[in-house]
Specification:
Order of helices and strands: HHHHHHHHHHHHHH
Helix content: over 70%
Radius of gyration: 24 Å
Low-confidence stretches: 289-293
Number of helices: 14
Length: about 290
């Protein structure tokens, strides 16, 4: 179909704006990678803008040789994998009953759950009560506190509930005629049909787990339990303090800056590697799970 002159202009402007947005999004990644393989003096002098200068992999050699970074990396993987699985399990267990009209008091339960979206205990207003609650439950400085304490995002429960509610009731009725229980119906019918939604929510949960650092920094005191993001923040703070106090060799500060860039690159590689495989479920899961017929 031939486009009119106005439509061609509109398409061209759209492509130009999307191209600029893509460049603005990609540039920080390119800069961080280029800075991580450039000479430290070139980085702090501002000579690295896009391409690396005086190529060197010393920062990566330092990062990969540090045992503490590998421990923090393993902790991050543990919190991400176990935390995402726990989050999906609890989200499904909450969303499936709420999607059934026959659930007694379903409206009241939904209201109580939705109320937590307005009173977020882990937000600024509830930080102290949330911390005291974690302490009373014995979850301070424990891996279980990080995995279980942040297992549920209320919005995702309702998103999954809407997805379950859109599954045709005829499938459930046919399974009940064959004698299937609710657990069997969930396992054999709803979950296979919910792969796009689960993949989407799993990606959201995984990214949140991978990037989370604040409560890990507050709740964890043992160095062998902190995730990579807490270690990275500590490195940045220590570098800024050292620069302000001028108590260490300036060349060491320069080298530490490229080490931080190398650590950032290493820390984002798993998410960058996994995302292309989940992307095909992403749009479908969001659209299907957000439409109520």
């Amino acid at each position: 179909m031939k486009l009119s002159r106005g439509e061609r202009w509109f398409t061209g402007v759209n492509y130009a704006l999307l191209g600029l947005a893509a460049l603005a999004t990609l540039y920080p990644f390119v800069y961080v990678f280029s800075a991580s393989i450039s000479d430290p003096l070139q980085v702090v002098s501002g000579n690295v803008l896009l391409l690396p200068k005086q190529l060197t992999f010393a920062a990566y050699e330092k990062v990969l040789s540090e045992q503490g970074i590998w421990i923090a990396y393993a902790n991050t993987l543990y919190y991400t994998v176990t935390g995402t699985l726990a989050s999906l399990l609890l989200t499904i267990c909450g969303a499936y009953p709420l999607s059934k009209k026959r659930l007694a008091g379903g409206s009241i339960i939904s209201f109580v759950i939705a109320f937590t979206m307005w009173v977020n205990m882990s937000g600024p207003a509830g930080m102290i009560p949330f911390y005291l609650n974690m302490r009373e439950l014995g979850l301070l400085n424990t891996r279980e506190g990080i995995v279980i304490g942040f297992a549920i995002t209320t919005f995702y429960v309702f998103l999954m509930r809407t997805f379950f509610a859109n599954v045709p009731e005829a499938l459930e009725e046919a399974a009940k005629v064959d004698g299937a229980s609710d657990l069997a119906i969930l396992w054999r019918i709803y979950l296979p049909l919910s792969v796009p939604a689960m993949a989407t929510l799993g990606l959201f949960y995984a990214v949140s787990r991978w990037n989370g650092y604040f409560w890990s920094m507050v709740l964890l005191t043992d160095a062998d339990k902190v995730p990579l993001q807490v270690l990275l923040k500590k490195m940045v703070v220590e570098m800024n303090v050292n620069e302000m106090m001028d108590t260490v060799d300036q060349a060491a500060n320069y080298a530490q800056e490229t080490i931080i860039y190398a650590t950032i690159v290493v820390s984002i590689l798993p998410m960058v590697a996994v995302y292309p495989y989940i992307q095909k479920f992403f749009v479908k899961g969001i659209i299907v799970g957000s439409i109520k017929e």
